[in-house]
């Protein structure tokens, strides 16, 4: 599979009068052509900062201080203004949570499509623009006669679909969606995601999908990355990540939301609260909340480690690599022995 976007060691700081806060720290991942990658994690862990950085839409006080973003082999971070303009709609386009409120209330939808097409020299006249815009509305199941309506004449779900149609206007290779349906009710949310999935199959674009709804993410994504306090702590296929988490934080997230399949399980939250980025402890950032914590975790910061061809984890120990290993299978110890097993491995 061909990589579409390759993010290597991305670091993003917010530089304020109070100091410099590293909101995204050494994050690496890639998205293949036609793939949907999800990014999950508690509020404030850096998901939106990653999304805006990929589009180079980050604004001061955000500053990309290290790393590389390669899109189809092109270096996004060194693109000049003209290249960037083309990258932003033809290469990658973005739909964010409140995007539906960013439509200009004083202009018809038709005018707003025209604005995009004209700016990018996609059409030679208004008639052509109208035709193209109607096609795009049809793609997202909005009747083409609604093209001449104003944003307030649409429901929230329809407005968000209009925004998605606009994001697809220049046939981008990557669609970045940051909580695209969070403001909508669950039924509309599902309809929209189903539509996006259909369109992805039809046009073959890739998606970076951000949501706090893990069950939706598992259903919708091919792979999922889990972020914690600016770090990407685990990356795995969505079918495996919650069943066989390798990072204790992923396990905690999995235990804190109900599943629709399998046995009824008690839901447990993750004790403690997210880290204060102004006050990062030595060692692993998750250590203060981790139930498997060892001395090593408080002293040495773990690095991302590849455990299988499509699995990475940033933890000194790997819950399921360990559980699955032949050695532990032979020992056949019950789960509560984890901590002792982990200590054995460390020694
Ligand atoms: N405008 C800003 N000024 C200073 N710090 C910010 C700003 N926006 C975000 N941050 C910092 O970046 C962190 C990550 O924010 P964000 O990427 O929005 O997280 P998420 O999308 O996961 O909720 C926040 O916890 C905050 O510390
Ligand atoms: Mg966000």
TrEMBL record:
Gene Ontology BP, a term: transmembrane transport
Pfam families assigned: ABC_tran (PF00005), oligo_HPY (PF08352)
Entries under CDD domains matching the protein: ABC_NikE_OppD_transporters (cd03257)
GO molecular function: ATP binding; ATP hydrolysis activity
Source superkingdom: Bacteria
Key words, A-Z: ATP-binding, Nucleotide-binding, Transport
Matching PROSITE patterns: ABC_TRANSPORTER_1, ABC_TRANSPORTER_2
Domain ABC transporter: 7-254
Record PANTHER family: MALTOSE ABC TRANSPORTER, ATP-BINDING PROTEIN, OLIGOPEPTIDE/DIPEPTIDE ABC TRANSPORTER, ATPASE SUBUNIT
Name of the protein described by the UniProt record: ABC transporter ATP-binding protein
Organism: Vibrio amylolyticus
């Amino acid at each position: 599979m061909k990589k579409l976007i390759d993010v290597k060691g991305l670091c993003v700081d917010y530089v304020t009068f109070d100091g410099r806060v590293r909101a995204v720290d050494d994050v690496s991942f890639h998205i293949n052509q036609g793939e949907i990658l999800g990014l999950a994690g508690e509020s404030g862990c850096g998901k939106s900062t990653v999304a805006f950085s990929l589009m180079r839409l980050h604004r001061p006080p955000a500053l990309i201080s290290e790393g590389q973003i390669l899109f189809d082999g092109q270096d996004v971070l060194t693109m000049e203004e003209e290249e960037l303009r083309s990258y932003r709609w033809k290469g990658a386009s973005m739909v964010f949570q409140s995007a539906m409120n960013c439509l200009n209330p004083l202009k018809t939808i038709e005018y707003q499509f025209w604005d995009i097409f004209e700016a990018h020299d996609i059409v030679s006249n208004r008639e052509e623009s109208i035709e193209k815009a109607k096609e795009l509305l049809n793609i997202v199941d909005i009747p083409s006669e609604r093209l001449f309506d104003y944003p307030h004449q649409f429901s929230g779900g329809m407005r968000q679909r209009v925004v998605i149609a606009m994001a697809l206007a220049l046939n981008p290779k990557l669609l970045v969606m940051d909580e695209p349906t969070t403001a909508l009710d669950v039924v509309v949310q599902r309809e929209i995601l189903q539509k996006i999935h259909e369109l992805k199959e039809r046009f073959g674009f890739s998606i970076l999908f951000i949501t706090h709804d893990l069950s939706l993410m598992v259903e919708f994504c091919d792979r999922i990355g889990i972020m914690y306090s600016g770090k990407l702590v685990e990356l795995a296929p969505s079918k495996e990540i919650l069943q066989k988490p390798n990072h204790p934080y992923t396990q905690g997230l999995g235990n804190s939301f109900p599943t629709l399949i399998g046995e009824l399980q008690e839901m447990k939250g993750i004790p403690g609260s997210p880290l204060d980025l102004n006050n990062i402890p030595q060692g692993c950032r998750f250590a203060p909340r981790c139930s498997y914590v060892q001395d090593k975790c408080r002293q040495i910061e773990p690095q991302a480690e590849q455990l299988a061809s499509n699995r990475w984890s940033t933890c000194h120990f790997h819950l399921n690599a360990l559980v699955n290993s032949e050695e532990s299978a032979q020992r056949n110890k019950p789960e509560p022995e984890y901590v002792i097993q982990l200590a054995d491995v460390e020694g």
